[in-house]
Amino acid sequence: MTTAVYPGSFDPIHSGHLDVIGRACQIFDRVVVGVLDNELKRYLFSAEERADLVRQSLPADTKIEVRHFSGLAVAFAVAEGAQVIVRGLRAVSDLDSEFQMALMNRRLEPKVDTVFLTTGLSNVYLSSSLLRDVCAHGGSIEGLVSPAVERALQQKLAPAAVRAG
Ligand code: PNS
After folding, report:
1. pLDDT score, position 60
2. Residue-level pLDDT at 6
3. Could you tell me which CATH number the domain at 3-122 has?
4. Distance (Å, rounded) from C-alpha 165 to C-alpha 163?
5. Which residue's alpha carbon is at the smallest distance from atom 20 of ligand 1?
6. Most C-beta atoms within 10 A of its C-beta, which of 12, 68, 98, 104?
């Protein structure tokens, strides 16, 4: 059985991430989405909230599990019995930092390899930070995130847009 972990910040999860998860499910027997809890980083949503939003955004599929983790992604992969780390690529500009991470992760844990999946063309411009920014300024993000994420973003950020007005 091949297990892949898909680590990320998911602050919050969007259609590009969901696209990558769907593609990973076509290839691997078990896919574990790992929501990073890095105490040195400021997130809009807590790790629990981000993991819950991932769960609420996923189709019912027994091969996908969602956990949050702290520490190294390779350690999370080993703990989950995964052979593969999945990362999504949007454009060539992603490759530089992803290449660095993949090689460092291989050095840390040679048994775990990184597999890059390219997201669908309709999602290549999406990022969590862009979506947070658009929502904070009152723009529509409908169709770019799940309804659960849209509601959660509006609850967190829409008051800021109203106050600014
Ligand atoms: O969604 P992101 O923010 O692009 O994901 C980045 C992530 C979580 C994959 C990366 O920061 C990571 O793996 N962090 C865990 C700590 C770690 O393993 N650092 C060394 C990476 S070589």
Report:
1. 85
2. 98
3. 3.40.50.620
4. 5
5. 72
6. 12
Position 159 scores a pLDDT of 60
Strand partners, 87: 116
Q: Give yes or no: 128 in active site.
A: yes
The amino acid occupying position 115 is V
Q: What letter would DSSP give residue 145?
A: B
Spell out the domain ranges in the chain: 3-122
Instruction: Give 162's Cβ-side CA count (13 Å radius).
Output: 6
Instruction: Compute mean pLDDT per 10 residues along the chain, 165 residues long, and list them.
Output: 97 98 97 97 97 95 92 98 97 92 98 96 95 95 97 86 53
Q: Is the peptide bond before 12 cis (omega within 30 degrees of 0)?
A: yes
Give the type of residue at 139: G
Q: Is 8 in the pocket of ligand 1 (CB under 6 A)?
A: yes
Q: How far apart are CA 66 and CA 41, in angstroms?
A: 20
Question: Which of 33, 90, 98, 101 is the pocket-test mutation for ligand 1 (most atoms within 8 Å of CB)?
Answer: 101
**Per-residue confidence (pLDDT) for residue 51, from 0 to 100:** 98
Q: What is the pTM of this model?
A: 0.95
